[in-house]
Amino acid sequence: MLHQWVIKPYTLVDEKLISLIIANAAFVLKLLGFTVYQSIEDRNLQLIGIDGAHPIWIGSPCNALTLFMFFTLFVIAFPGNIKKKLWFIPLGVVIIHFTNVLRVVALICISYYAPQYIEFNHTYTFTILVYSIIFLLWMWWVNSSLKELKANDPKD
Q1: Integer Cα distance of 83 and 88 in angstroms
Q2: Tell me, what's the pLDDT at 34?
């Protein structure tokens, strides 16, 4: 709700994240030798594609902000060392961001080479992939926190 009622209407966070994803995806695609085009349709909707193919649109639901918040809240809520949280949260957010950038790059390539598969991959393949990465990050946090709590337990 915070995102829907405060962040989205009154800040540029969504727009800046979308622009960052577009810039990172364009960089990767250019490294791969593609000619990339971009278009800003709206403050919260930007297009990116490989020249000669249909573009994909990147909007607020695609920028991973809610995933960043979800991940961050989980780490904050789970017991653990504050200093470790201060490095683990930014690390997790960066990993989630670059996973999302690679997802966008892959969707753009699918749009170029096999557009008939874009919807399936967007809906299923990459949703499962991104949530799996977040789950692995959480498991990493839980396991390291539990080891630390166990090591600091005076009963042992």
Answers
A1: 9
A2: 97
